[in-house]
Amino acid sequence: MDKAAIEALVRQAVQDALAKGAEANAPKAAEPCCDGDNCKPRVVKPPPVRDPDALRKLAQSTPARIVQGRTGTRYLTKVYVGIRAEHAIALDAVHSAVPPEFAASLGALALTTQADDKEDYLLFPDKGRRLSAESKALLEKEATKGVDVQVIAADGLSAWAILRQGQALVPALVKELSAKGLSVGRPLFVTHARIGVQDEIGVLTQARSTVILVGERPGLGTGDSLSLYTAYKPRLNQDNAEKNCISNVRPLGLPPEKAARACAELMRKTFDAGGGGVHLVRPQRDLVVRG
User: 106 and 89, same structural domain?
Assistant: First the structure.
């Protein structure tokens, strides 16, 4: 069979396919697969059947943006507007602030970092990892020393997160840690804080471990999401490999009460194992259980 005959067969196959179904769902005609004198069109599987009800349930099961649809190569208008709105939420979360009286509502000692204001905090991250001189003096004077766990609440990159989750999370965490046999110091609240400030606080208070509750860097529509970072035997510039994180603490993720229980269990395991982070995933034979 010559080339012209093969091309004629292919053209006929394409025309037949278009005649049988909608153009969008019709199988694409593939190049012929020829074996000797026998030439057969390659079998093309039809696209999977799309069940509108199943797709709707899938989209409703998560706040993530899935099954959004499109018009040509663009988002649908309602999807585009929704993305813009969620982006605005994220921007507002970064620039949100905690009122001065919030620390007292938690029964916490109010501290500040070396960042002078929000702009200074965003432009110079290292300033958020160290306490101001005034806060160091206040910490030395009034903080509880030598406890098993020092709980620290902070605004981080989303003050909204600690405002919305902190009232329930801080007391629940103190309660759950105490129930695990761990002593807990007076909670601290740090303004303009980065995660690393827990290192300096742990050293200054001589705590055996620290837990910092801090607003996460917000994504689309997640301005209220909080994270907990734990550190065992804290020291300045402690490697993140020695720390653990429980993230997405919020009603749409891990509710505060469940997060408190999960953190307390994590700290109990950390103390029993003698270390956190990668130490917790070492083979069991390498772990020394505390008596």
Answer: no
Two structure tokens written together for 262:
């999960």
For residue 254, the model assigns a pLDDT of 93
β-partners of residue 214 are 227
Residues 6 or more apart whose CB falls under 8 angstroms from that of 22 comprise none
- Enclosing domain of residue 78: 52-94
pLDDT at 52: 80
CA distances from 209 to 68, 86, 94, 175, 215 (A): 44, 36, 28, 16, 20
**3 state DSSP class of 159:** helix
> How does pLDDT run across 69-110, given as a tens digit for each residue?
888 888 899 989 988 998 898 888 898 999 989 999 999 999
- Concatenating the DSSP letter of every residue in 22-60 gives -TTTSPPPPPPEEETTEEEPPP-PPPPP--HHHHHHHHH
